[in-house]
Specification:
The complex is a heterodimer of chains A (813) and B (63). Chain A is an alpha+beta fold and 813 residues long. Chain A has five domains: 62 residues, Roll (Ribosomal Protein L24e, Chain: T), CATH 2.30.170; 254 residues, no CATH class; 88 residues, Calcium-transporting ATPase, cytoplasmic transduction domain A (Distorted Sandwich); 148 residues, HAD superfamily/HAD-like (Rossmann fold), CATH 3.40.50.1000; 111 residues, Calcium-transporting ATPase, cytoplasmic domain N (3-Layer(aba) Sandwich). In chain A, strands 17-29-28-27-18-25-26 form a seven-stranded mixed beta sheet, with helices on both faces. A six-stranded antiparallel beta sheet of chain A has the order 9-8-10-16-11-14, with no helix packed on it. In chain A, a hairpin with a 5-residue loop joins β3 and β4. In chain A, α8 packs across α9 and α15 packs antiparallel against α22. Chain A is globular, with a radius of gyration of 33 Å. In chain B, 38% of the residues lie in helices and 0% in strands. Chain B has one helix and no strands. Chain B is elongated, with a radius of gyration of 24 Å. Chain B starts with a helix and ends in a 36-residue tail after the last helix. Classes of the chains: A alpha+beta (813), B mainly alpha (63). Chains A and B meet through α1, α2, α4, β5 and α5 of A and α1 of B.
Chain lengths: 813, 63
Amino acid sequence: MTENSRSCFHCGEPVPSACDLSVEIEGQLEPVCCSGCEAVAKLILQSGQSRYYQFRTEKALKPAEEDADIEAAWGRYDERFSLWGSPLKNGRYELLLQVEGIRCAACAWLIRSQLEAREGIDQVQVDVATGFVRINWQPDKLKLSRVAAILAGVGYRPHLPLSGAEAMGRQHERRDALKRLGVAGLGMMQVMMYAAGLYAGDALGISEGPERFLQWISLIVTTPVLIYSGRVFYSSAWRSLSHRRVGMDVPVALAISIAFIMSCINFLTGNGHVYFDSVVMFIFFLSLGRYAELVIRHQNLQTGLALARLLPEWAELLRDGESEQVLAADLRITDQVRVRAGQTFPADGLLIRGSTEVDEALLTGESRPVEKHIGDVVIAGSINRTQTVEVEVSRDPDDFTVSVMGRMLLKSQTHRSRYTRLSERYAGWFVAIVLIVASLTALWWLNHDMAMLFPATLAVLVISCPCALSLATPAAIASSSRALLEQGVLLTRSAALEVLGSIDTIVFDKTGTLTSGSPSIVNTVVNPSREGFDADTVLRIAALLEVDSSHPVSRAFADITVDRDLVTGIVNHENGVEGRVGQDRFRLGNAAFTEVNVIDFSGGLGRLWLADETGWIARFDLDDGLRDSAIETMSALQERGLELIILSGDHEQAVASAAKRTGIKTWLSEQTPGMKMDYLESLQAEGKTVLMVGDGVNDAPVLSVANVSMTVSGASELANSTADFIMTGMSLINIKNILESGDMTRSVISQNLLWALTYNLLAVPFAAAGLIVPWMAALGMSLSSLLVVLNSGRLARRRVAKKPQIQPRLVTQ
Amino acid sequence: MSILYVLIPLAVMLLALAVWALLWAIKNGQFDDLETHGWSVVLDDDQKPPPMDDTEDKPNKEE
């Protein structure tokens, strides 16, 4: 089951070389990476649940150190029965837990079989897609902390859901829609069966008794379906009418009513056809379309809400040198908290002691940990990977980056784009036209053939229902913004997605946008008079000397992997570092420190010299490092035929160097924000559509001038960003992804609109001519809406399939 | 064809029963998770986990 012999059998992470822990499964020893994984794996195997390993499709979550103490930690919840979930009968409660680490069906099975075997737990449901576990239990027989401990014991970390009420509300909404769909479906099957008898009777002859009887039964079955499942269309039509608008449910409600009332009249007077089958069929297909739309909408919301569950429940508050556990929600600005390795940061704050690596993958979509030093901003929800650190809380919970992201996401979902507004207004007109056409049809048949009056009018009303038309844009944008979020891009103004296609010029800021602001080595010069040193050797020696350094310059060497045992006796000085590699002593630092007898002229961020007792060995020229994938992104953008420009406030030399390295030909240096704005406006005056990419913090006014704006500030600055697209990751490749997803979204929208319009224009004349019977119209209309919803869903699915492993918790199936 | 007068009302009663069963099932969350139960066939519980109390629960804690 393991990919290679040294990856952990349980969680799949690499096993440290010093670790020789293992578990025995079916007589074979498999390595594990830590005692946490060992404990979990042993418990699973001892419980006879080794099948979990056989059937799982994803590796497990690595247990964190604090999981062992979870029972004590959750102990404080035992007496707060409001946290036990909603009360059921006989002292039972329904508890909803958000559980981390549920990745596949085997997880669900493992959790169910662990929990359901305990006394006090009646039933357990696990929702793999959302990570919710619903437990029917008796708190007097089993404590809440035990439930948490059992879950943690098999490697799943429980959380009390922050948005429990909302999750419940969404579940009720889904269940209600499913009930309406089910009732309509069952009713439809029955009524269509009777209709088959009636149609056969029309063709072959039927005596009056059975015919009346079949019509009776149809009426009896149709009425409750109409009342139960059709009610939503009436209430929605009424809502739009009371706002003096003609919504798309108006013709729906009208069609259902006409069909039902006319059928009743025909039935009572005993002549003419009944259309009960069309009524139920119409209701069923409409409910089906609405249900599909609801599921997609909930999945989109779920992606946003996944952010909220990242926050831990407790924090270790430091007060007068003592530490105590407090609820994370109670933290205030200037509180100081300790965050141990492996824990999640409970609040946004500044690092005040220690330095560590932080995993921001769930917020930014990047799997590589980010180094944080004293004074750096850490964000709630990111994971502290290596060292215990202390953090001073700098924001209130409402201003946490995750909260802001959640709000922006909700805002962008409610923010209606230009196309959406357009197609809504259009749908209003469309409905009016439909009603007019229907009346004209009725008038025509009234004067020509009374028998066709009713079926033709009904067919027009049903077939031209503008559902597909009004779904075309919002469905596509919702799917696309969800796909973007999974890649670490927040869409804050959905209209921007539509403008993307007309972009022909991209303007970049330099510092913090094209470059990362931290040093990298652009040039290595080896002293030609020294023998036995080449570029690789000197880089390795320098990296060894900087291996434990926290000086910003050391980040330039962070990419070179070295064995830290090779270096001894490191001494940090003010202007450099000195240490012993092998037998020789080396110094790395500025010219004065390394006693290099030159006048140090620094381009870029400066120079570093490597020297030993006999003199200098090598020189490293440092410059502002380019961001990840800057070069490939720029060439990809140029291939798309876009004009790239750098506008920077930096001095000429630095900008020229960045332009040369990224292959951008047009650049302007030493620009003030005012000059940048003027430049953008002059570009726009030439008829160009400009996309501006900045860091979003100090160039906000410039960004607002551009037609579309993006920021690459990284997650910690997110709250200050004001752009249409906010890239929470540090890689520039997302610019290309955003442009591509804009292309795809626009093509899906135009497919949708084209389809909806063509279908309506083609079908209405046939319906008016009486060539389409009402049930065919119902089928056609519904299939058309369904097609639009499914076509839009394609946007989200394609992206999810591309990147599933990197952000397991943000992916919804 | 007079048998229809018996059979169809019977079918309608069955329909009512089916609707009731469906609503009951939805209300009890039978349709909330359509994914994992397919696996229960291959993941059968022929071995129940041993009963555990607080002291036995973390057998490896001392390690």
